[in-house]
Write a structure and sequence with these properties.
The complex is a heterodimer of chains A (113) and B (117). Chain A is mainly beta. Helices cover 0% and strands 52% of the residues of chain A. Classes of the chains: A mainly beta (113), B mainly beta (117).
Chain lengths: 113, 117
C-alpha cells in the first residue's frame, strides 16, 4: 500500500530562519517521484520541488531543497531564509509507477516576523 | 498555455440535491485526478481517470461518481448531497506515461468550493 506521512500538523519558524518539514513514504515500487506542494490560504496548489527515486543528488529549487534519504524512505522539505509569504499549508506527494498520486495530510507553516 | 480550469468556482446546493463539477486539464494531459479537501484538512483522493477510463477511486460512497470525456475533460457528480460534502474540490491533471523515470508534477486547478446548506 502506498502511503505518505506528514507528522507535523503545524510548524512555526522565525523569519529568515530555516525550517524542515518532514515527510516519510511507503511504497514497494522501485521507481517513483516525490513532490512538494504549497497551498496558501487562497487554496491554489503550487508545485515547489521534485525528486526522482533514481536521482542521486538532492533536488534544489531556489530556497527549497529536498533532503532525500531513500533507505529511510524520507523526503523532507527544507526552506531556507523563511519569508512571511512562506506561511501556508505544505503537502508532500508521491507518484508511483502506476502514475497515481498520493498526498500527505499536510503541514501548516507559520512564519513569525 | 492554459492551466487546469475548473467550473464553477463556487457552488451552493441544498441537501439532497445533485452537484456537477467540471475540469479541463492542460492540453496534452490524459490523466485527471479529483480530490476533496474539507476545511482545514488534507487532500482526500476521490477519483483518477486516464484515457477515458476510471483507474482508481478513493474511499468514498458510490454517490460520488464521474467520467472522463474523449477530449480528456472530466466531470465529478455528487448525488444526494449531504452537509459534510461541503468542501473544496480540486482537480489535477498530469501527463501520465508509463515506463518513464522522470515523473512530472500534477497541475492543479483553482478548485470548486461546494457548500451544502
Amino acid at each position: 500500500a502506498q502511503k505518505i506521512t506528514q507528522t507535523q500538523p503545524g510548524m512555526f519558524v522565525q523569519e529568515k530562519e530555516a525550517v524542515t518539514l518532514d515527510c516519510t513514504y511507503d511504497t514497494s515500487d522501485q521507481s517513483y517521484g516525490l513532490f512538494w506542494y504549497k497551498q496558501p490560504s487562497s487554496g491554489e496548489m503550487i508545485f515547489l520541488i521534485y525528486q526522482g527515486s533514481y536521482d542521486e543528488q538532492n533536488a534544489t529549487e531556489g530556497r527549497y531543497s529536498l533532503n532525500f534519504q531513500k533507505a529511510r524512505k524520507s523526503a523532507n522539505l527544507v526552506i531556507s531564509a523563511s519569508q512571511l509569504g512562506d506561511s501556508a499549508m505544505y503537502f508532500c506527494a508521491m507518484e508511483n509507477w502506476g502514475n497515481q498520486f498520493y498526498f500527505g495530510t499536510g503541514t501548516s507553516l507559520t512564519v513569525i516576523p | 498555455e492554459a492551466g487546469v480550469t475548473q467550473s464553477p468556482t463556487h457552488l451552493i446546493k441544498t441537501r439532497g440535491q445533485q452537484a456537477t463539477l467540471r475540469c479541463s486539464p492542460i492540453s496534452g494531459h490524459t490523466s485527471v485526478y479529483w480530490y476533496q479537501q474539507a476545511l482545514g484538512l488534507g487532500l482526500q483522493f476521490l477519483l483518477w481517470y486516464d484515457e477515458g477510463e476510471e483507474r482508481n477511486r478513493g474511499n468514498f460512497p458510490p454517490r460520488f461518481s464521474g467520467r472522463q470525456f474523449p477530449n480528456y475533460s472530466s466531470e465529478l457528480n455528487v448525488n444526494a448531497l449531504e452537509l459534510e460534502d461541503s468542501a473544496l474540490y480540486l482537480c489535477a491533471s498530469s501527463n501520465a506515461v508509463l515506463g518513464r523515470k522522470r515523473y512530472t508534477e500534477a497541475f492543479f486547478g483553482q478548485g470548486t468550493r461546494l457548500t451544502v446548506v
